[in-house]
Amino acid sequence: MPNLSDLKNRIASVKSTRKITKAMQMVAAAKLRRAQEAAEAGRPYAERFNAVMGGLAASVGTSEGAPKLLAGTGSDQTHLLVVMTAERGLCGGFNGNISKAARAAAQKLLADGKTVKVLTVGKKGREAIKRELGDHFVGHVDLSEVKRVGYSDAASIAQDILTRFDAGEFDVATIFYARFESVISQIPTEKQIIPADFEASEDDSTVYDYEPSEEEILADLLPRGVATQIFSALLENGASEQGARMSAMDNATRNAGEMIDKLTIQYNRSRQAVITNELIEIISGAEAL
Amino acid sequence: MADMMQFDLVSPERSLASTQATEVQIPGAEGDFTAMPDHAPVITTLRPGVLKVMTGSGTEEYFVTGGFAEVSGEGTSVLAERAYLKADVTRDMLDEMIADANAASESAAADAVDSASKFLADLVAAGDEIGI
């Protein structure tokens, strides 16, 4: 049985751990609210954008001169996986789930004889898949200095991807991120961004005039579409990360509380045992006289 | 009083305006135009410039860089890559954008040089229009 002062130290240490996890939970809750607001503020743009693109893509998509970003390069040999994770850990299964999804997809593609290239955003995911897919890394985007993800961050990632696409480095690009469902549920999602995959818009009977031509508008908007999708993925990811951290820290706080209760009972018992022991010694000593 | 239509201005980061308007002057890529209620449906890309919104009670002006505008029977929505209230734009912001555009047009691929330098020229012109 551990002695009293050991137990006491142990309780004190668990208590300070609980304070830390509690504080982290509250910070995550505050950040989650901000991240959710940002995600919601960005939604109208993405929705409108996709609706317009859906209409455009439907009318141009099948024609001969459709841009490569929409129609693809005609091959699907080389895949670029863009794995977006957090810069920090301690957020439950968040980073692990995204990396797992990316690893599974990569293994499947490799088994089919495709070439896989990996671009990582966020260092936690990079660490997690380094061992398995380290040879396939082509780049990394570091967002650890970025306090609040802005559109310009997404635009520069998109720029990087588009430059690689124009250079013919890959045929298909897929992003991996976690869709924010609720605080307790973030769903690892993969989404193909090149060639663009827009959901066909519902029967919109409005016939638009396009200025300049549909093709030119499409050529102008497709690169922005990539940036828009990356931006909304980053926002979703931000909210998911904070949500995952909040529930992970909530669990940790509860566990620490339970542990403190158990340790306190153990501490009280051992103290009582020591007292009883001392009494027995005194009484038997007195009797022996 | 004139008819009103719904007007929305959204950037990727937030929605800047959602209001009723009598007319909206839009800096289209092929030239400025004014959308009024019941305008024929049109989708156009934008050049950097000033967007004027006449609401019933006054005029609001925004500075937008690229993006596109969608005019339909129900209203007008402008999806701008970057949009600011005109009053919020400072010379420094503009200089920064012009510097970025400069760099982009210098490093642009052969087939993109025209559009990059047009973007730059439009940006400079928009700056003069704002008068800062």
Give me the strand/helix succession of chain B. EEEEEEEEEEHH
Main sheet of chain B?
5 strands, mixed
Q: Assess the beta-strand content of chain B as a share of residues.
A: 35-45%
Number of helical elements of chain B: 2
* Largest sheet features of chain A: 5 strands, mixed
Oligomer: heterodimer
Report the principal-axis shape of chain A: elongated
Radius of gyration of chain A, in Å, reads: 28 Å
Q: Please report which band the strand proportion of chain A falls in: under 5%, 5-15%, 15-25%, 25-35%, 35-45% or over 45%.
A: 5-15%
What is the helical fraction of chain A, as a range of percent? 55-70%
Helix content of chain B: 25-40%
Termini separation of chain A:
32 Å
Mean pLDDT of chain A: 88
How many helices of chain A? 6
Rg over CA atoms of chain B = 15 Å
How does this structure look, described?
Chain A is built from 6 helices and 6 strands, in the order H-H-E-H-E-H-E-H-E-E-E-H. By secondary structure, chain A is α/β, with parallel strands linked by helices. Chain A has a 5-stranded mixed beta sheet, with helices on both faces. In chain A, helix 1 (4-60) packs antiparallel against helix 6 and helix 5 (151-166) packs across helix 6 (214-288). Chain B has 132 residues and is an alpha+beta fold. Chain B has 2 helices and 10 strands. Chain B has helices at residues 91-107, 113-130; strands spanning 5-10, 15-21, 23-28, 31-35, 42-45, 49-55, 58-64, 67-72, 75-80, 83-85. In chain B, the strands form 2 sheets. A 5-stranded mixed beta sheet of chain B has the order 2-1-9-8-5, with no helix packed on it. In chain B, helix 1 packs antiparallel against helix 2.
